[in-house]
Design a protein that fits this description.
single chain; alpha/beta; 7-stranded mixed β-sheet; 5-stranded parallel β-sheet; elongated
């Protein structure tokens, strides 16, 4: 039983009594719910389908739906496997009893099925609400089948009422508690606290108050007494709503928005006409084109609301060979306090910081590093982080990671998804003092090799990759990229975590890569090869290796300056007669109106010859 005194509730009621609506209201505050539908058939019955669609429209978009089908044992097994962080709504048991009595299953021990379901409800660790018709007040059916159904449903209701913490009867929309009482679930509040922002080393405008959102890694007991609270996903950030982005289910083939296919190339072409000396913005034009595409504007504005999302992870086995886990923990703690490298760079950029710690995962060489349900929850956690940034008015996200063993995990993800050679991409293990630990590097290589050998015949879907070798920090980062694309927020990535997440997110929704920018490539072959696969052209290549997220934060001021200049600078005076207000060529290349093909020079836009050294366009609609 949970701290608020109920885990399982049976809601009884007649047809159109309001029992389903009341059951849904009990868990409306839960961050996510598994809705179990028991009805079978009815495809040729429009009225029945209309009832089902009415229920579907009433459910929040963050709920997932599962169908038990014609096999009653499916519901029993689902309840047995449900974890303590899950909320399950079964609607309703009438469909389940109909499946129990299916002639195709006879002869069968129906009472044993009922007893098994009751035992699963008694032992389940999840919060469960069961809806069931109450037929005991109606006339005895005149047909044998009708009597058998009423009898079986009555026996089922009695068995479940005995094991449930609370039982409610709904009549004409009014509720009476027959056993115990269950208060509606309330969503836990987001726990935020201000951080001390260090004074920048160079003069800079004072940054806005930064906020660290620090979810706990493991569920904690809820306070008592007080209102009913559910730690449904184990942490504060993880309970942010999904309504804004319309998330229903994270699965391959998701249809997410794309940046503008025209604004980016048009902005790049407009750069050639600006009143800028020399060759203009050079490689920084990549950032201007990206900002234009993601903002659907030929004259994009510089990002002003920056959210740095720091994901801290823990691993075991050969992946962490040579890693100083205490030092990793120190840097995560510094990020939480707003100090250290990430805190200082965030302060200089006027950014706030959100930190999420993920639970430890296993050794990739020994078996799957985590479970499928944990991966699905982590994907949703990352999506919620993107939603939180959007709801707070942030217009760009910097993805940062502080995780022991992330280099080995990202190398395994790259090799598993692209066929890259691990020994050619796994970064060398560097220890304080700029020294390399070759023995540790070989241990990491062996771990990656053994993991890839172990999964050589396993499925390579996105969830499979995360479960087998990626881990929960990569899963959270993947969910963040998906959620950011859904909310049309650009993400600045750098380092192994961002690349690994991008490769996995690509298999769930290919649109995500178009919302990612690689500000600085660094020196890691892993990052460069992964970025090439994703089609990410680095804005700069100055060889920074400051760590996950720090590269992007270090060059962010320069990138923002370039975007602001591109929007503010006027057209060069020499081109005013040829260029319209939007900065694009409005004059014909040939003054003649005829179709004479014998002109001395070919028809070229005014800016082609002068600026033919610009880097190629990125086709955002590709």
């Amino acid at each position: 039983m949970s701290e608020d005194r109920w885990n399982t509730v049976l809601v009884l009621g007649g047809i159109r009594s309001g029992k389903s609506g009341f059951a849904e209201s009990l868990i409306s505050g839960a961050p996510s719910v598994r809705y179990v539908a028991t009805a079978v058939g009815g495809e040729d019955d429009p009225e029945w389908q209309a009832r089902i669609e009415e229920h579907q429209r009433r459910r929040p978009q963050s709920w997932t739906t599962e169908e038990t089908g014609a096999e009653p044992a499916t519901l029993t097994e689902l309840l047995r496997q449900a974890g303590p962080d899950e909320t399950v709504l079964v609607d309703d048991l009438g469909g389940w009893v109909a499946a129990v009595l299916n002639p195709a299953r006879q002869p069968n021990d129906d009472e044993a099925d009922v007893a098994a379901l009751a035992e699963a409800v008694r032992e389940t660790a999840a919060r469960v609400v069961l809806v069931s018709p109450e037929v005991g007040l109606s006339l005895v059916p005149v047909t044998p089948v009708g009597r058998a159904f009423a009898d079986a449903l009555g026996v089922t209701n009695q068995a479940l009422a005995e094991v449930c913490d609370a039982v409610a009867l709904v009549v004409a929309g009014q509720t009476t508690w027959l056993k115990g009482r269950a208060e509606p679930v309330e969503a836990p509040p987001v726990v935020s606290r201000p951080i001390a922002v260090p004074t920048p080393m160079t003069p800079a405008p004072p940054p806005p108050p930064a906020t660290v959102v620090t979810p706990v890694a493991e569920p904690e007991p809820e306070p008592e007494p007080g209102p009913a609270l559910v730690g449904a996903l184990s942490g504060a950030t993880m309970t942010l709503p999904l309504v804004s982005s319309g998330l229903t289910e994270i699965k391959p083939g998701m249809d997410l928005p794309l940046p503008s296919a025209d604004a980016g190339p048009d902005a790049r072409e407009r750069l050639a006409a600006l009143d800028l000396p020399g060759g203009g913005l050079g490689a920084l034009g990549e950032a201007v084109e990206f900002a234009a595409a993601t903002q659907s504007s030929v004259t994009p504005r510089a990002w002003t609301g920056v959210r740095v999302v720091v994901i801290g992870g823990r691993r075991a086995g050969g992946a962490v060979a040579g890693a100083d886990t205490a030092d990793v923990e120190r840097r995560i703690a510094e990020a939480e306090l707003g100090s250290g490298l990430i805190g200082r760079l965030a302060a200089q950029a006027g950014a706030d910081v959100s930190v999420l710690r993920t639970p430890a995962t296993g050794a990739m060489e020994d078996g799957p590093v985590t479970g499928e349900r944990e991966v699905e929850a982590a994907l949703r956690d990352g999506w919620r982080l993107a939603d939180a940034a959007a709801d707070a008015g942030r217009d760009v996200i910097v993805l940062a990671g502080i995780s022991a063993g992330i280099e080995a995990a990202a190398t395994a993800v790259l090799a598993a998804t692209t066929g890259a050679e691990p020994v050619a991409t796994l970064p060398r293990v560097q220890v304080p003092g700029a020294r390399f630990d070759d023995a540790a590097w070989m241990a990491q290589c062996a771990a990656v090799r053994d993991a890839l050998h172990r999964i050589r015949q396993e499925p390579r879907g996105a969830v499979d990759i995360l479960r087998q070798i990626g881990g929960l920090d990569v899963a959270v980062a993947t969910g963040l990229l998906l959620g950011a694309a859904a909310r049309r927020i650009p993400v600045l990535v750098d380092g192994p975590l961002g690349i690994a997440a991008g490769l996995v997110a690509r298999d769930l929704a290919s649109q995500t890569r178009h919302w990612c920018l690689l500000p600085e490539a660094g020196t890691l072959a892993l990052v460069k090869q992964g970025a090439d696969v994703l089609g990410l052209t680095p804005v700069l290549q100055v060889g920074l290796d400051l760590g996950e997220g720090a590269n992007a934060l270090a060059v962010l001021p320069l990138v923002r300056t370039a975007v602001a200049l591109a929007a503010a600078q006027p057209v060069h005076p020499a081109l005013l007669g040829e260029v319209g207000d939007d900065g694009l060529d409005d004059s014909p290349a040939d003054d003649d109106d005829d179709d004479d093909e014998t002109d001395d020079e070919p028809d070229l836009p005014f800016n082609t010859a002068a600026f033919n050294t610009l880097s190629p366009r990125t086709e955002w609609g590709a």
